[in-house]
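Dear support,

I submitted the protein below through the web form. The confirmation email said the job was done, but the results page showed an empty box. After a refresh the structure appeared. I'm attaching both so you can tell me whether what I see now is the final result or a partial one.
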Amino acid sequence: MMSRKFYLWTNGLAALVWSFVFYSNTFLLHRRGEASGAIHFSLSSALMPFLALMSLGQIWKLLKAPPAELIRDPHGTVILQDFLATRIIQNLFSFGMAALGLLSLSGIVQNDMPGGRIWDIAFVGVGALGSLNLFSPRLRLVLSPQGLEYSHLRPSTVSWEDIVDVTVKTVFTTSTIKVTLKDTTEFRSGYLLTRWRRVPTFILNPLMFGVDAASLVDGIDLRRNVFTF
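What the results page shows now:
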C-alpha cells in the first residue's frame, strides 16, 4: 500500500505532464487551424486541462486530510469527505466531454482524432454517465467510537458490531477497502437511482478522501477491536 507522500509526488508530476501536453498540442493545433481556417480539437487538448485540475485537486485533498495519527486514534472522531471544488471539477469534466462530442457531431468543430465519429459518440456517452454523479450524495465518511457513517449508505450509520470483515485489494498503485456487513442488517444504496438495492458490502477508495489505505484500515480495525464486545 502506497503512502500519502507517494500520491503527492505522483499527482504533482501528473499535473505537470498534463499541462505540458495541453500546451504543446494547443500550439500545434493553433498552427494547423491558422492554415486551414477551421476549428480543431483533439483528445489531448480536450482532456488535459481537466486532468491537470483533477490532479491539483487531489493534491489539495491529500494536504487537507486529517493526519494518520488522528485517523488511527480509536477514541477520536474523524470526518473525511470529498471537497466541493473537486466535485465541481469532475462535473465540469463530464459536461465538457459531452459538449465536445455533441459539437463535433453537429459539425461546429472538427475532430482530428482517428475514427472521429466513434470518439464523438464515446465523448457523449462517457460525459453523460459522468453527469449522473450529480444525483449521488456528497462523499462523506465519519469514524467515531459509536461506529462508521458513510454517506452512500441508507441508513448511513453502521455500528462496529454490524461490520463482519475489512479487506484491502491493491491493483498497481491503487488500493481499495472492502467492508462486509452482517446479513441480518438491512442497508440500502445511498444513490437516488439505486435506492432499492440492498448493500451487503461496500467499497471505500481512500484516495477519494485524501488518505492512504493503511491509515484508513487501521482506523477502522482499531475502533472495531476497542468498541466491539
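Response: this is the final, complete result; the empty box was a page-load delay. The mean pLDDT is 82.
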